[in-house]
Amino acid sequence: MVLDEDDGCPHANVDVNFESMERKFHAGGAETGRVVPPIGHSFLAIPLAVVSSVVKIFRIGAVMNNELDRLYYRETVRDSGVGDEKVIRQHSGISVYAHVRVAVEGLSRGRGNVFSWNAGLNIPAKFAPAVTRGVQDAMNVGVLAGLQLIDVHVSIEDGSYHEVDSTSEAFSEATERAVAQALRQAQPQLLEAISLVTIRIPQEYAAIVQTTVASDAGEELHSGMPAKTITVKIPTSDVDGLMVKLLEVTDGQAKISSASAGFRPASDPPDPVNQWVERR
Length: 280
Hints:
The chain is an alpha+beta fold. Helix content is 26%, strand content 34%.
């Protein structure tokens, strides 16, 4: 097989923020996913059946964990990694070829996802949308528990193609595999959503409210007088439960508001995640 590679071509650098890109997932021509923007971050809600199919086809290692609510958990990486994958197949006299090299790097919390193209025309321009699609697919199913990745820089570094045998589907597949390979090298990590909860109560309820917050392992950030105002930081998954308790212990006198505070490393990852990491 003769490959057409132009190593002398100029290399363009393009940075794109994933957060500004529309995310919709189509299977068999019908839209099966929808854009959902919970707690300040947009993500693609992929049906379990679709995720399972992607995992089986591309063997990227992500297994949807039903114990983890996609509203409250994400994945990220703490380090950097490189993935290099080729799709080479021949069936019934038809050959398929694609090659993609990818680098990933973890970013600080709140930076969002960033995409860079540094492969020039070693991957033809007509295949760029397929490569981008492969990146998005890999980032939406992660490598730990089938969760979306955030705060990761993905760079397409290099690749090669065949003038006849290369297809968009092959480049999308090679890219998804390469990104997953790079993510595994980069120390993947589970994140949990955090909320700031502000509670305003009459002074006589201050002690019981502080006790209630402490029992939920909330981090008290601020208190005010004379009407007591308490601000705590807790996992977003615990907000509803805390609200019920506060209303009960204050006879409905508590005025409660909550706001997204981003994500942090999960303090106590659910057992299924730990077991998966150990098996990996």
